[in-house]
Design a protein that fits this description.
The chain is an alpha+beta fold and about 900 residues long. It is built from 26 helices and 35 strands. It folds into six domains: about 160 residues, Rossmann fold; about 130 residues, Methionyl-trna Synthetase, domain 2; about 160 residues, Valyl/Leucyl/Isoleucyl-tRNA synthetase, editing domain (Isoleucyl-tRNA Synthetase, domain 2, Alpha-Beta Complex), CATH 3.90.740; about 45 residues, Rubrerythrin, domain 2; about 130 residues, Isoleucyl-tRNA Synthetase, Domain 1 (Orthogonal Bundle), CATH 1.10.730.10; about 60 residues, Roll (Ubiquitin-like (UB roll)). The structure holds ligand ANZ and zinc ion. Its main location: cytoplasm.
Length: about 900
């Protein structure tokens, strides 16, 4: 060979900008609806424009991008869109802090983050991009809402909010810190104000049943949704109340425990409680107290049990005896009937309550098959878990008169029939799911399109007056929403009678915008919410995003899709068929202790780390002063721990392909991914090696055509490896979403190439095939490098996504020789190469002759030879 040829070094920056320029010049990823190929719609959860991309975004969008590019290479018409979930509270806070406007701040962030996304080279159809805060987007949401209002699916009622009495404003749950307003520090109160709701409860059963059809969703997510919807079957039972009051209706899932009722508990907001309080100042004061405190579910669950006797007496519907009626803080007005038959012998909350207020506790069920002595004991002074709701399947009734001996089902049926016959109760299915409260008293959101008229009431804004625009040029004082503070904005005329009227000043929950964006991407520019293109693309084939959205977002998303279906906008029931929830991105934390016991968290980028030979961190110093810092645990990247790694810095240092490669290599998509720069460097070395292998091959000129019949053993072996890799990678991408193992397989192929030094014509042909396969197999993950390497391998500038994904050739994978491990008494001593069809005697002979094995066999007699075909020869010797 002549003098060493000049190789082009790998320069990610120029490689990446060249590939990106080529894609945008060819509008390579703009999707259309006229292709004859099967469609594939790959959706990612849209980012909130907080200011800069974080590694969680990079991971999320890289997974989607790999799937999208792979699908395109396997013959699909792919849509991968992107947009911005642009309304929300952080913009208001940032605007106050930076003395700017939420709109300005948001649009600037979007511009910056868009360029960051583009630098990562995602195959996104940018022509479909939108921000949910733009009127062209939210006008459709407003129009849909007015329809829902006319249909009765949207309605208005009073509901409780967190009220800050100093700032005179409502607070979001996350603005209530330890029961106080985040800004004023005032004790937060509960207050009832009129709010808008969507009747998601009408769809509870359908949303539950639909889960059974979602085979491509993780079981864990479906379970969380089922629990959230919380279907329970029970009875409503009437208790008469002495003194001429209306009867009380309770909802119970345990009518079998009816004979154990020793009191009845009602919510503080229950009509009967209010009635009793009218003549009982002490009770009235107690009800006032109950209004203090936050409204979040977590708070209600954990608070101490408190109550007060109303003085009223309820009549037990079977025995006719009277029991007291108590107000209890754990009874929710919004669930069931707001009244509970208390069974302290078998319900833990009732037990705690009865113990505290010295109410009677009696046993009425027992386990039929206690697993031990303990489980056959019931106690009125100590709570026993095995008498709770968990064990309802294997119990029988005791101390229950005529019902003694019945099991749960038997008692349920007997009582249901009895009460239904007497008109004293009925079977009833309840859902834990509540209607979706969509009103927010915040400024930076979509205005709710309603006008209030003294004569006509709440009137939907007519279509020709939509959108109701949110003014963007505003000043925020941090307390009141600018549209609430501005009487001019509110003023309007009633669309029905023309009299002066006022606009609604609340805005929508931002979950509204993220409930239908999946559909809007399909129909850019459509005059209505969507057009017929929606049915071409929907349901989306893949949805990738964070597990933190497993419940609320995904439930609203499935609900809203059904609203659109019922409005004949789409004809599917579910919005997405497959869901992939990616794990967190985690990283090491570093800190220094302050003298007051608090910690100063230090970003890993500012720390020099010493590692042992296994890569474990053994010491760390602050680069700026060379002094040691403390090493904390490995945690989710976050501002509070200052352990975020900036994607942009990583892209600048290593190139987008290396960042993409590492995010896919370091962990399977569902698991946590620990960011560590040593790992990133490893990926960078691998890419560089592949780059050099291609460059060397290219420098030798065009490779001759491959003659499969003329290959020698080594050439056949490399070719076999190439096709095995193709087969594995295709399977890992397509069937398992196991990207890390796919990358590992290509790395192995590159290792095999490094060992293959054969400059013969067929040697180069086989190497060319291997390199082309490696470049195409990696293309979904490292599309820029693949774009450049494909050209280096002698092809014109091509859109690789339009090439078919490599197909394994079965004939190439027929091995004619095999490597077997040779063991002596179960210990590995060497390996041998044998023909695939070698007879057992020949294998035995080769094994005994293997030099290292022969050494171990010296002076021993072989007693037995065990051959595991294709794998092992074990020589049993003594
Ligand atoms: C008697 C009883 C005995 C109950 C027992 C439970 C165990 P799920 O499964 O969530 O539907 N309940 C009913 N309405 C309530 C409300 N508004 N606020 C708080 N608790 C309420 O739970 C239904 C059970 O929760 C009902 O069955 C009722 O207590 C309580 F050993 O009735 B049960
Ligand atoms: Zn009117």
């Amino acid at each position: 060979m002549s003098a060493a040829p000049e190789l082009t070094p790998y320069d990610p920056q120029s490689v990446e900008s060249a590939a990106q320029a080529f894609w945008s010049e060819h509008r390579a990823f703009e999707a259309g609806e006229t292709s004859g190929k099967p469609k594939y719609y790959c959706l990612s959860m849209l980012p909130y424009p907080s200011g800069a991309l974080h590694m969680g975004h990079v991971r999320n969008y890289t997974i989607s991008d790999v799937i999208s590019r792979y699908k395109r290479m396997t013959g699909h018409n792919v849509l991968q869109p992107m947009g911005w979930d642009a309304f929300g509270l952080p913009a208001e806070n940032a605007a106050i802090k930076n003395k700017t406007q939420p709109a300005k701040w948001t649009y600037a962030n979007i511009a910056h983050m868009r360029s960051q996304l583009q630098s990562l080279g995602y195959a996104i159809d940018w022509s479909r991009e939108f921000a949910t805060c733009s009127p062209e987007y939210y006008v459709h949401e407003q129009r849909m809402f007015t329809r829902l209002l006319r249909k009765g699916i949207a309605y208005r009622r009073n509901a409780v909010v967190n009220w800050d009495p100093v700032d005179q404003t409502t607070l979001a749950n996350e603005q209530v810190i330890d029961g106080r307003g985040w800004r004023s520090g005032a004790l937060v109160e509960k207050r009832e104000i009129p709010q808008w709701f969507l009747r998601i409860t009408d769809y509870a059963q359908e949303l539950l049943d639909g889960l059974d059809t979602l085979e491509g969703w993780p079981e864990s997510v479906k379970t969380m949704q089922r629990n959230w919807i919380g279907r329970s079957e029970g009875l409503e039972i009437q208790f008469n109340v002495e003194g001429g009051h209306e009867p009380l209706t309770v909802f119970t899932t345990r009518p079998d425990t009816l004979m154990g009722v020793t009191f009845v508990s009602i919510a503080g907001e229950h009509a009967l409680a209010l009635k009793a309080a009218a003549s009982n100042p002490e009770l009235a004061a107690f009800l006032e107290q109950l209004k203090l405190g936050g409204v979040s579910e977590a708070e209600l669950e954990t608070q101490e049990k408190r109550g007060m006797d109303t003085g009223l007496k309820a009549v037990h519907p079977v025995t006719g005896e009277t029991v007291p009626v108590w107000v209890a803080n754990f009874v929710l007005m919004g669930y069931g009937t707001g009244a509970v038959m208390a069974v302290p012998g078998h319900d833990q909350r009732d037990f705690e309550f009865a113990t505290k207020y010295q109410l009677p506790i009696v046993q009425v069920v027992r386990l039929t098959q206690p697993r031990n002595e303990e489980e056959s004991q019931w106690s009125a002074s100590e709570w026993r878990d095995w008498y709770s709701d968990k064990t309802r399947e294997d119990i029988e009734l005791v101390n229950s008169g005529e019902f003694d001996g019945l099991d749960y089902r038997g008692a349920f049926e007997a009582l249901a029939e009895r009460f239904e016959r007497k008109g004293q109760g009925q079977r009833r299915v309840n859902y834990r799911l509540r209607d979706w409260g969509v009103s927010r008293q915040r400024y930076w959101g979509c205005p709710i399109p309603v006008i209030y008229c003294d004569s006509c009431g709440a009137v939907p804004v007519p279509d020709d007056q939509l959108p109701v625009l949110l003014p963007e040029n505003v000043t925020l004082d941090g307390v009141k929403s600018p549209i609430k503070a501005d009487p001019q904005w509110r003023k309007t005329t009633c669309p029905e009678c023309g009299k002066p009227a006022e606009r609604e000043t609340d805005t929508f929950d931002t979950f509204m915008e993220s409930s239908w964006y999946v559909a809007r991407y399909t129909s850019p520019g459509a005059e209505q919410m969507v057009d017929k293109r929606a049915n071409y693309w929907m349901p989306a084939d893949m949805y990738v995003g964070g597990i933190e959205h497993a419940i609320l977002h995904l439930l609203y998303f499935r609900f809203y899709h059904r609203l659109m279906r019922d409005a004949r906008m789409v004809d599917s029931d579910e919005p997405v068929t497959n869901l992939l929830t990616q794990g967190m991105v985690i990283a090491e934390t570093y800190y220094r202790d302050n003298s007051d016991g608090s910690k100063d968290w230090i970003n890993p980028a500012l720390v020099d780390v010493q590692r042992d030979e296994k890569g474990r961190v053994v010491g760390a110093t602050l680069a700026a002063d060379g002094q040691p810092v403390q090493i904390g645990s490995i945690e989710k990247m976050s501002k509070s721990r200052s352990n975020g790694v900036d994607p942009q810095a990583m892209v600048e240092k290593f190139g987008a392909d290396t960042v993409r490669l590492f995010s896919m290599f370091a962990a399977p998509p569902e698991q946590s991914l620990e960011w560590n720069e040593a790992g990133v460097e490893g990926m960078s070395r691998f890419l560089r090696r592949l780059w050099t292998q291609v460059q060397k091959q290219a420098a030798e000129g065009a490779a001759p055509a491959l003659q499969a019949q003329d290959l020698n053993a080594a050439q056949k072996a490399l070719r076999c490896k190439t096709h095995e890799t193709i087969e594995k990678v295709g399977f890992d991408y397509g069937k398992r979403h196991s990207f890390n193992t796919a990358i590992a397989a290509v790395m192995e192929l590159s290792n095999a190439l490094a060992k293959f030094d054969d400059d013969s014509a067929q040697g180069r042909a086989v190497r060319q095939e291997a390199l082309e396969a490696a470049v195409l197999l990696l293309n979904p993950i490292t599309p820029h490098a693949s774009h450049a390497l494909w050209q280096a391998l002698g092809h014109g500038q091509t859109l690789l996504e339009d090439l078919p994904f490599p197909q394994a050739d079965a004939a190439a994978m027929v091995r004619d020789s095999l490597t077997l491990a040779v063991q002596v008494n179960g210990k590995l001593r060497g390996t041998i190469e044998v023909a695939a069809d070698a007879p057992k005697e020949q294998i035995e002979a080769l094994a005994k002759a293997e030099p290292n094995t022969a050494k171990f066999l010296e002076g021993m007699t072989i007693r037995k030879v065990i051959v595991v075909p294709g794998k092992i020869v074990n020589l049993v010797a003594a």
